[in-house]
Design a protein that fits this description.
single chain; mainly beta; 4-stranded antiparallel β-sheet; 2 helices
Length: 417
């Protein structure tokens, strides 16, 4: 084996090695999920070298430079405040969804007006790039094929999904087959497939090159309202109003695992970076952590007094955040299941909660028309993002965590830097 070059992945931190083996170029990634800005670089290099034969002593200086770059990327100025940069006046009828490309240069909004609009965040005035027209009912969800960002998928109450060129706005294909409203959409991590989920109790997988259906995932007894790929792209996770979460083998189309234990409708799902555990939130007021391999419930996240509306992992997957109709968010240790902090301050239900890419901050969105930024280590609110006049439905960090995008029922999106 001969090492050819290094590729850095900042969030979560890792180093990809591109090497030649028997005449072919191959890649493998060294994950550094536990890396912190304070770690001793030489100790990190030694740990890498012990398990990776391509990292020989003559490579240590190069790797030292790469590790320091990753550490700099994890450094966060905790005193930094976000300031309103732009206001995007999006649709006349209510917003349904908002999604960003990886670079944070563009985002897409869906609406009850049956259209999607693509917006340029770098323009001075918050310019609309173009409108995606063609659906015959509410556009309920949309997604970019990150990290590539050259395609957008939209799904609608008209029972179809549509694939668009994100640079030109041109329609590439219409994907049909569902018999009721389509409410979820996500791209396979490598960009080859697209998955959709519907109120018809099923999910479907399409090959993007041929626009043909390659898997029909049947088994839920009620609407499927949550859908995501695991990081390998080999599995899909679905959450349903039938109180269950299912893990599907995309290649066979078979249900590989069923996670049972919730006593209410599933509201949200998430998966860790290594595809080892799945998290779920439910209207039964709990979150749960499930073993990816066995389907066993590892932890039951309790403490909320109303339905859990969202659930997410930190970048190193050691922490889980939940948000609830009880106006609070909670932080849990994913290893022990212990609640480490309760984030209080919102005056209405908290619909969304996410970590920033560096794992140092938590962002919540509430029906009280505000978003709040929280210091993860202290569990305290460091900033309230005000200006929206109605419920916030969406929040997003940029890839580096330096920009926030918020979307509201007031039909505006706001960019904070």
């Amino acid at each position: 084996m001969r090492l050819k070059k290094y590729l850095l992945r900042y969030y979560p931190p890792g180093i990809t090695l591109e090497y030649e083996k028997r005449g072919s170029i191959q890649r493998k990634t060294i994950d550094l999920l536990d890396l912190t800005p304070e770690d001793n670089v030489d100790a990190v290099i030694h740990s890498i070298a012990v398990s990776e034969p391509l990292i020989t002593p003559k490579r240590f200086e190069q790797v030292r430079h790469l590790v320091r770059q990753l550490q700099m990327g994890l450094t966060d100025d905790e005193s930094r405040k976000f300031h309103l940069s732009k206001v995007f006046k999006t649709h006349v009828l209510p917003l349904t969804n908002m999604a960003c490309n990886k670079a944070g240069t563009r985002f897409v909004t869906g609406s009850y007006d049956r259209t999607c609009k693509v917006w340029d965040t770098s323009s001075k005035t918050g310019q609309e790039v173009f409108s995606l027209n063609g659906h015959r009912n509410v556009v309920y969800n949309a997604a970019f094929n990150n990290p590539y960002g050259d395609k957008i998928a939209t799904v609608s109450f008209d029972k179809t999904a549509k694939l668009w060129n994100s640079e030109t706005g041109k329609l590439i294909s219409t994907l049909s087959g569902h018999t009721h409203e389509v409410v979820c959409v996500c791209f396979e991590p490598h960009g080859a497939h697209l998955a959709t989920a519907s109120m018809d109790t099923t999910a479907k997988v399409y090959d993007l090159e041929t626009s043909s259906e390659i898997a029909w995932l049947q088994g839920h007894d009620a609407e499927v309202i949550s859908l995501l790929y695991d990081p390998t792209g080999q599995y899909l996770i679905t959450g349903s109003f039938d109180h269950s979460v299912r893990l599907w083998d995309v290649r066979s189309g078979e249900c590989a695992r069923e996670f049972l234990g919730h006593e209410g409708e599933i509201t949200a799902t998430s998966v860790d970076f290594h595809s080892k555990v799945v998290a779920s939130g439910s209207m039964d007021q709990t979150g749960k952590l499930w073993d990816f391999g066995s389907g066993r419930c590892i932890h039951n996240f309790e403490g909320h007094t109303d339905e859990v509306l969202d659930i997410s992992f930190s970048y190193n997957c050691r922490n889980v955040a939940t948000s609830s109709g009880d106006t609070s968010a909670r932080l849990y240790d994913a290893r022990t299941g212990e609640c480490t902090d309760v984030l209080t301050g919102h005056t209405s239900e908290v619909g969304k909660v996410i970590f920033n890419p560096k794992g140092t901050r938590v962002l919540t969105a509430s029906a009280d028309a505000t978003a709040r930024v929280w210091d993860f280590s202290e569990g305290c609110c460091t900033q309230i993002l005000e200006g929206h006049t109605e419920e916030l439905m969406f929040v997003s960090f940029s890839y580096d965590g330096d920009t926030i995008l918020t979307g509201s029922k007031d039909n505006t999106c706001r960019l904070w830097k």
